[in-house]
Amino acid sequence: MARLCTESLSLEPCTTADAADFIALERDPEVMQYLHGGAVDHGTIDPGNAPFLMPRGTETYVWTARRAGSEAFVGWFCLYPMENGHAELGYRLRKDAWGQGFASEGARALVDWGFAAAGYRRIVAETMAVNLGSRRVMEKLGMRHVATEFPIYSNPLPGLELGEAIYEISREEWNCL
What we know:
Layout (H helix, E strand, L loop, with lengths): L3 E2 L3 E5 L5 H8 L35 E6 L5 E9 L4 E8 L8 H15 L5 E7 L3 H9 L3 E6 L14 E7 H5 L2
Parallel strand pairs: 5-6
Antiparallel strand pairs: 1-2, 2-3, 3-4, 4-5, 6-8, 7-8
């Protein structure tokens, strides 16, 4: 993993010093509405059982995002390695960072790094179909909607009846952007 810089962000491999910022994100009900239906109760959820969704600073695939210049915490981005040269893109931003282009900017940096430096062949991402903000970010990256899945959960989140939207981009598609 490398340090990645964009016009507005500095993305660095996470460390355990980032854990408090990560946990604060999980405690914000609006940030977590499409993941856990609201704030995470750390007394009932073991982050070890959800490392992709709940990083603690030891993950080798998570970058901490800070504002360039001020180093203020913005959120995190990840490229979770999968089989067959694929990776899954994920991100979570503080509410006060929404609507400023940070999600697209940070995700673009990871997708570019994933194809150019890490050698991934395909990058996928998914979100609840009702999460229009994340879907727009994926589309801005050149990702295309490839499927909508309808998982069955004993306690589904509101909006899950519309499914999980799956997006992807191949290295060949990325080369043409």
